[in-house]
């Protein structure tokens, strides 16, 4: 393979982002240190390429500066803005901003079969190609969900947005409850927040389901524990702790109205740091009612955007710009 040295160095992003996507799917947690070496490589390769275009003497030099400017001054703020409004997770935004520094312009790789990427846009900003590819890959996920649910017989209005899961499997799942006791919702209990609550009480989901009435009584909350951040692979799990008072096997006879703070939801949110992923006492109580009264529930999986971002990068490095290719096939461009 023939390529500029800087372009070869940039390929470090492929295994790094692949590992990040794998880890994000498993834990929904990524270490901040991951982005620092990639940013260093990006800044060094960008500075090296810039030296080749100074002084600015021709059209190619000016185009290089414009493309770098678009990547740094448009794509980076766009990623930050999407994180700020809640459209991106923090790791997703950091990944996109890092790629904007690493790949402001199109790399070129010469193989025996030809030059890659094969489809290059007129704009020539490679980070934008990665982003549009990622969006297209992400749009394919609802189609997959719909087909999967249809084949399993789980048909309904949410079959393209969520999947039915056994309640017993929720401690190892990510996403949000997609339903309440009254119907479907997009604002159900975050499963990380559910794990935080269980760890705080020193109990398990099985114990909660076995004795919901006892757990509903805030007076039955004894010693509490570190809730962690709700990650599936937290160092300390509820299964490793002594089970707090409440796992008595009592029947579920007491409604929420019988207590001032049912499930000790307000106390939990007051004692922990942060907001447990935006959870309110009522959202927590409603989620606990759902998981203690049903054997299976709909959840919104919430696949991290870093997965389609990784796939979008791989597509960009090989095929090129998928959207531009589609529009070209349709005769639009």
TrEMBL record:
The keyword Membrane applies. It is a multi-pass membrane protein. It is found in: Cell membrane. Residues 214-223 have a biased composition (Basic and acidic residues). Residues 12-142 form the Prepilin type IV endopeptidase peptidase domain. Keywords: Cell membrane, Membrane, Transmembrane, Transmembrane helix. GO terms for cellular component: plasma membrane. Its main location: membrane. One of its GO terms (molecular function) is aspartic-type endopeptidase activity. This is A24 family peptidase. It comes from Haloplanus rallus.
